[in-house]
Amino acid sequence: MLSTVRVGAWTTPRLTRTYTAKAKRSVLSQDTTKIKDYTPKVSDPHAHRVYVWGFQETGALGLQTSVKKAQERYTEMVHHPTRLQFSNNNEITDVAAGYGFTAYAVQRSDGETLFGSGLNTDSQLGFQVKGNPKDPANLDVIIYPTAIRLPRENGETDEDMQVRSMAAGRAHLVVVTRNGTVFTLGNNSYGQCGRSIIDDERYSKSALIHRIAQADICGEKDEIVSVECGQDHTMFLTKLGRVYTCGWGADGQTGQGNYHTAGQITLIGGDIEKERIVRLTSSSDCVLALNERGDVFGWGNSEYGQLDDSEHAQTQINTPRALQLTKGIGLIKDVAAGGSFCMALNDQGLVYTWGYGILGFGPFVEQTSKPQHLLPPLFGRNDFSNATTVVSIGCGVFHMGAVNSDGDLFMWGKNRFGHLGLGHKKDQFFPFKAAINGKVTKVAYGVDHTIALCKPYF
Fold it and tell me: Which keywords does this Swiss-Prot/TrEMBL entry list (predicted)?
């Protein structure tokens, strides 16, 4: 139909379209029998996938298969989360990040349960060789995940050797297997491997993997559920909520009531003696612990008021102490301790930070002795996703991260090596979402690299 519209002295034609009632119905209705069912193609059948980013020169990211390429200048850093090829071919169940190296717990048909890549200068990834087996040359840098063979006793099965928990420090690795056996590898200068300190011991090119029976640590009636490593100390958490430690204690981080190094794994007391601890965290020399009621305890380095904000507070605390500064911020569900700052997550999903560093409040706030909460919109909550909340937190020595209920990872802090995964190496002063193609379930924060264990969206 043609109609006209008068504009000033001019008359312009205008086309209009009319529909009959029957035509309208035919346009609106759909033949549902012709709608195809769509099933997304899943390229990776494994339950988990791994993304890595940060400093690559050490081999910690495990991305390279060519030594020549690994040494090229442009491959020094990976600024964006990148899918680890090794995870396409293997079922990875857990990850741990040390200072320049990474360990992977795997399930494979050949019985291998532990792999590693990165720095191996102290044999923290085992005795790795290349060339002629009769004249081996030890590898100080491993650029692609390689099997770490744990010594077995007669009768131990592949199932027994599956990894229950593992953690990595500056130059040591601790693994707890499903049958409760503890294996420690790497540097033991401070007793962090849970064995006697040997003067002038040589750790490079060492084939020693120390084995400890679970019962020798916590007795027959208890069992180890997780292990946590600081810079040069190790902590074991048991099913009954007890904490056992060893290693460097110069800042009181072993919690043994002194400032000595300790090669003997010892049960610690203080304010946690009658508590059931459910979470331990330490990335350097400060330790936080959480009990089942949501109370926070701490020991170790407190130079920036991480553990005590009173006027005459001690800067090194050698016995576990109930923290007063976290009172009044709600029931705590998760904690994390960095090099000079701490984090807490309460039951409302609010993230609190305090101490010294890039705390997430912008470039002008670098220190606070009182826990301050970061606004929920910084972690994905908005009018369209009002139920989104933070479910877990963690940190490295210089950076922090939080995972929300949608499986998104937000990161902030120092970024010199691109380990925030934001596409650059500038420091990030507010939480910012990392672009990862999967739902994040666990993050391992190294000193200069980050590893994320994810589940696919489909």
Answer: Repeat
The number of distinct structural domains making up the chain is 1
Count CB atoms within 10 A of the CB of residue 38. Answer: 6
Phi–psi pair at 67, nearest 5 degrees: -60, -40
Alpha-carbon span 232 to 364, nearest angstrom: 32
Question: What is the distance between the terminal CA atoms of the chain, rounded to a whole angstrom?
Answer: 50
Q: Whole-angstrom Cα distance, residue 212 to residue 382?
A: 50
What integer pLDDT is reported at residue 319 of this predicted model? 98
The tens digit of pLDDT for each residue in 392-424 reads 999 999 999 999 999 999 999 999 999 999 999
Domain that holds residue 117: 83-268
What 3-state class would DSSP assign to 378? Answer: helix
Neighbours of 245 (CB within 10 A): 28
* Side-chain half-sphere exposure of 204, counting CA atoms within 13 A: 8
**CA dist list (Å): 49 to 262, 294, 402, 441, 456:** 38, 32, 19, 10, 7
The answer to whether position 206 is within a domain reads: yes
CA distance 397 to 170: 11
Stated as kind and residue range, the H or E segment containing 79 is strand 77-83
Q: Collapsing DSSP states into helix, strand and coil, what is residue 145? A: strand
Question: CA-CA distance, 123 to 263, in Å (whole number)?
Answer: 18
Q: Cβ distance 354 to 372 under 8 Å?
A: yes
353: closest CA among 430, 448, 283? 430
Rounded to an integer, what distance in angstroms lies between the CA atom of residue 262 and that of residue 288? Answer: 20
How far, in Å, CA of 19 to CA of 79, rounded? 56
Q: Is residue 71 part of a domain?
A: no
Q: In sequence order, what E strands does 150-251 have?
A: 163-168, 172-177, 182-186, 210-212, 224-229, 233-238, 243-247
Neighbours of 201 (CB within 10 A): 12
Would 53 be classed as within a structural domain?
no
- The domain that holds 177 is classified in CATH as 2.130.10.30
Within a domain: residue 74? no
Of 368, 362, 369, give the one whose Cα is nearest residue 311.
Answer: 369
Phi, psi of 183 (to 5 degrees): -115, 130
- pLDDT tens digit string along 45-91? 677 899 999 999 999 999 987 666 666 656 789 999 999 999 998 99
Contact (CB, 8 A) for 253 and 260: no
* Contact in structure between 147 and 112 (CB atoms under 8 Å): yes
The two three-digit tokens of residue 78, written as one number: 């990976």
φ, ψ for residue 356 (rounded to 5)? -130, 135
**Claim: this prediction has a pTM higher than 0.70:** yes
